[in-house]
């Protein structure tokens, strides 16, 4: 199948290399020419385990290409995936659809007949209707079907999730579009479960899923505070909860709060949509408020450890919003570091993958260590903010020997060090 993907970010790129590996001819389109040139040269522009190997293999096969030309990219495509970013508006929290509709306007003149346009970006309910109306107005001669095809790729596990999807949700009433999507994923080694629903229901499923998981994270973080005050072990409590099949063990790990490109923006977006519809989403609103407060509390706890120390030094392990990725968007760790830096203390940071992306945000407000042991050297307190496996497996005698004051705040693994 000839597939075009508009956008080469954390959704578009893993999807593109994945579809190529299934035997499809894939053209990935991005307006950033420098980024396109890097990808053509086999240089990954984001970190995901296994992504680089798939990129190079796809380029060698000749079935994977990159371009900054919309006309060239969508030529003869049977399926076009819209995978551009929909960041939150800073004022309202609603999804900013400028990039999405900008891509649609660029795409419209080059559409041929009998093409399916799938919106893979996370978009407010009803956006598919607007995309369809816009395409038909700009190119009334093209026979275009617009469907919703939300992504469920976890950052850090995107390649794995592409090949092992829990479900494929498709928002369409078209039999032709249904068969096209079945054909798209047919080469997967394990046939996924397809759920065909209305376009608006498909759009809502994505938001409802992410909002539920965000609420679950907020709940276990509040329970961690309760257990700490009550003298209980949060890991044992979470284990006991997770054995109940109605609850399950996933997303029951306490930490400094949820972050990344999905949960923060999607909870705000669905809250905004609900407000416009006159619906009260009290649980989601509480999770948004509590998640913000948790970051403040984590920073305060770190500062409390050094409040009586003159010219204190603080070491931070972890900057990415979670392990397995270099993404620092809405990262709790980065926000906590920013709050510490505002106190004008000496902060030294380290992350296995996110140093470059974090530096774009933090600039010269902190020091950057070449490894985790160097970051901890001479520090009065060490705070662990991202759950990288190498942090858990550290040589703790070496760490303790390098610290000036042996204060370790483990906000990810919650173990006694």
In short:
The protein is α/β, with parallel strands linked by helices and 417 residues long.
Write the layout of secondary structure elements.
Elements: E1 2-6, H1 12-21, E2 25-29, H2 33-40, H3 51-61, E3 64-67, H4 70-74, E4 79-82, H5 98-107, E5 115-119, H6 127-138, E6 144-148, H7 158-163, E7 168-171, H8 175-185, E8 194-197, H9 199-230, H10 234-242, H11 263-277, H12 282-305, E9 313-317, H13 332-341, E10 346-350, H14 355-362, E11 367-368, H15 372-376, E12 381-384, H16 389-392, H17 396-402, E13 407-410
Parallel strand pairs: 1-2, 1-4, 2-3, 4-5, 5-6, 7-8, 9-10, 9-12, 10-11, 12-13
Helix pairs in contact: 1-3, 5-6, 9-11, 9-12, 11-12, 12-13
How would you characterize the overall build of this protein?
- This protein is an alpha/beta fold and about 425 residues long.
- Among the domains are: about 1-195, Rossmann fold (3-Layer(aba) Sandwich), CATH 3.40.50; about 205-290, N-(1-d-carboxylethyl)-l-norvaline Dehydrogenase, domain 2, CATH 1.10.1040.10.
- It is about 45% helix and about 15% strand.
- The protein contains 17 helices and 13 strands.
- The protein has helices at about 10-20, 35-40, 50-60, 70-75, 100-105, 125-140, 160-165, 175-185, 200-230, 235-240, 265-275, 280-305, 330-340, 355-360, 370-375, 390, 395-400, and strands at about 1-5, 25-30, 65, 80, 115-120, 145-150, 170, 195, 315, 345-350, 365-370, 380-385, 405-410.
- It has a six-stranded parallel β-sheet with strand order 3-2-1-4-5-6, with helices on both faces.
- Helix 5 runs parallel beside helix 6 and helix 9 (about 200-230) crosses helix 11 (about 265-275).
- The chain starts with a strand and ends in a 7-residue tail after the last strand.
- The relative contact order is 0.09.
């Amino acid at each position: 199948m000839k597939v075009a993907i508009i956008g080469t970010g954390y959704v578009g790129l893993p999807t593109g290399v994945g579809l190529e590996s299934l035997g499809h001819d894939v053209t990935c389109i991005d307006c950033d020419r420098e980024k396109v040139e890097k990808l053509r040269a086999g240089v990954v522009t984001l970190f995901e385990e296994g992504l680089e190997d798939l990129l190079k293999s796809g380029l060698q096969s000749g079935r994977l290409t990159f371009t900054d030309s919309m006309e060239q990219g969508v030529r003869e495509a049977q399926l076009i995936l819209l995978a551009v970013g929909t960041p939150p508006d800073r004022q309202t929290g609603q999804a900013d659809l400028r990039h999405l509709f900008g891509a649609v306007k660029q795409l419209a003149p080059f559409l041929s007949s009998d093409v399916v346009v799938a919106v893979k970006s996370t978009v407010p309910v009803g956006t598919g209707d607007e995309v369809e109306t816009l395409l038909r107005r700009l190119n009334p001669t093209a026979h275009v079907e617009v469907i919703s095809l939300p992504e469920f790729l976890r950052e850090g596990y995107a390649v794995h999730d592409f090949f092992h999807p829990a479900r494929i949700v498709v928002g369409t009433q078209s039999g032709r579009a249904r068969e096209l999507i079945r054909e798209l994923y047919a080469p997967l080694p394990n046939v996924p479960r397809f759920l065909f629903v209305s376009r608006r229901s498909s759009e809502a499923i994505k938001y409802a899923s992410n909002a539920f998981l965000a609420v679950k994270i907020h709940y276990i973080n509040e329970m961690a505070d309760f257990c700490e005050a009550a003298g209980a072990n949060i890991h044992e409590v979470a284990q006991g909860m997770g054995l109940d099949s109605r609850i399950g063990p996933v997303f029951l790990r306490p930490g400094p709060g949820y972050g990344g490109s999905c949960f923060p923006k999607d909870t705000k977006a669905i809250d905004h949509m609900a407000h416009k519809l006159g619906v009260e989403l009290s649980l989601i609103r509480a999770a948004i408020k509590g998640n913000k407060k948790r970051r403040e509390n984590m920073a305060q706890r770190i500062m409390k450890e050094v409040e009586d120390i003159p010219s204190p030094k603080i070491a931070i392990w972890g900057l990415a919003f979670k392990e397995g990725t270099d993404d620092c968007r809405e990262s709790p760790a980065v926000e906590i570091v920013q709050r510490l830096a505002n106190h004008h203390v000496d902060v030294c940071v380290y992350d296995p993958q996110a140093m470059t992306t974090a530096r774009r945000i933090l600039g010269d407000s902190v020091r950057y260590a070449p490894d985790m042991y160097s970051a901890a050297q001479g520090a009065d307190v060490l705070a662990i903010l991202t759950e990288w496996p190498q942090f858990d497996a550290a040589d703790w005698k070496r760490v303790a020997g390098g610290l000036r004051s042996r204060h370790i705040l483990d906000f990810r693994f919650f173990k006694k060090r």
